[in-house]
Amino acid sequence: MHKTANDFGEGKIISLITSQAIPLIIAQLVQLLYSIVDRIYIGHLPQTGTLALTGIGLTFPIVTIIAAFTNLFGTGGAPLFSMSRGAGNQEKAERILGTVQALIITASLILSASIYLFREPILYLFGASAESFPYADSYLKIYVFGTIFAMTATGMNGFINAMGYPRIGMLTVVIGAVLNLILDPVFIFLLHMGVAGAAAATVISQAVSAFWVIRFLTGPGLSLRLKRDNLKIDFGLTVQIIRIGIAGFIFQATNSLVQILCNSTLSIFGGDLYVSIMTVLNSVREILQLPATGLSQGSQPVIGYNYGAGKYERVKESIRTMMFICSVYTLAAWLVILLFPKFFITLFSSDPGLLDAGVRSMHIYFFGFVFMALQSAGQNTFQSLGMSKHAVFFSLLRKVIIVAPLTVILPRIGFGVSGVFMAEPVSNVIGGTASFTGMYFMVYRKLGKEPVKGTARV
């Protein structure tokens, strides 16, 4: 166990960001196995695979809402925690840690009860049919019991990374995901539990991950720890946490809104087959978007720490480095999608009908993927500095103002199911460009020259 947290104020920026980002990317990639492996196994179930995949897709908005609340507290607290560390305020940093855990416990209990009680009307509202509902219900009514574990493992793991221990954070996810990888075929096939087995394996795995996180954060060897005395909701800190985390919350909540609109619109214009295709495309997007997200998030503690320490040139260098690496990666990922679409689709299904329609849809959906780098750079810089209003605006711009209306309108003006898939690339180009341009003029150009308005207090 290390005794002190890492200092981001010294050393090469690219080394600091990559040392944070690489373990974080690995951790997030492994974390995706929780859901991706479920979808792969379920999509290849004999005879019922495509319909079962549709059922899993219908639960995405609910899982995303849970992630939204995790982001509200986790990504709200971690940047504030980093800035407090950079300013040398250890006592405040520990109070932030305790407050976030208390908020996660409270929210998870409320969400679990609400989703379980109202899952049937919710699923039908989200686009379920009489054929797909039983699969969605079987998965969801078990999954919700693991909400407290999922929120704790993900939300509190960010603080491990913020203290400069990305490898420990990576292990949090690796342990749970490997366990899920082992348990999935046992529950799904050996015990013949099907979709319910996938949910049970996920809950058990998330519980183990949550235990690992809490055990580390309460360890006696850390200079900053999760203490019982701080395990309470500090309302003053909660306001600051929510102000920063609201951007991450809205980002996930609007993702949920878009998923709902996509599924319900596709169920009207294309039926269960196209809901399955969207489930596959969302899964592929999660995989390909992950490295860009990890690089951006890996830069957050570096940006936050150096801003708190008044080292503005290092903040600017961090932004440039993050932007360059993300741009190169997203361009390469787009090219791979264009060249090998069938490879990604057959990971999740061997249904010939899904493959044929899925390739066409994939080419549309991923057009202009490189512009996601602009969105990530702008969004994460605002969030790193606690500029919640700006981060919220650009998140709303892309999802609520652009994607959501287009998802509803385009299919109804002659584009059919293709219109649903067209909404994403249009939002990437417009929203990504706007987010990066706003960050450049409101933050980057002002650093070291004049005060940047809207940043969090430390």
**What is the first-to-last residue Cα distance?**
28 Å
Write down the Rg.
Answer: 21 Å
Shape: globular
H/I helix tally: 16
Order of helices and strands: HHHHHHHHHHHHHHHH
**Regions with little confidence, pLDDT below 50 for 5+ residues:** none
Total number of domains:
1
**Sheet having the most strands:** none
For the secondary structure, the number of strands is 0
Beta-strand content bin: under 5%
Helical content stands at over 70%
The overall average pLDDT, rounded, is 87
Overall structural class, as computed from helix and strand content, comes to: mainly alpha
Summarize it.
This protein has 458 residues and is mostly helical.
Q: Any overview of this molecule?
A:
With 458 residues, the protein is mainly alpha-helical. 79% of the residues lie in helices and 0% in strands. Helix 3 packs antiparallel against helix 6 and helix 7 (166-190) packs antiparallel against helix 8 (194-217). The longest helix has 38 residues, at 49-86. It is globular, with a radius of gyration of 21 Å.
Brief descriptors of the model:
0% strand, mainly alpha, 458 residues, 16 helices, globular
Question: What is the fold's blueprint, element by element?
Answer:
Blueprint: H1 13-43, H2 49-86, H3 90-117, H4 119-125, H5 133-143, H6 147-162, H7 166-190, H8 194-217, H9 235-269, H10 272-308, H11 312-339, H12 341-346, H13 352-365, H14 372-384, H15 388-409, H16 417-444
Helix pairs in contact: 1-7, 1-8, 1-10, 2-3, 2-5, 2-6, 2-9, 2-10, 3-6, 4-5, 5-8, 6-7, 6-8, 7-8, 9-10, 9-15, 10-11, 10-13, 10-14, 11-14, 13-16, 14-15, 14-16, 15-16
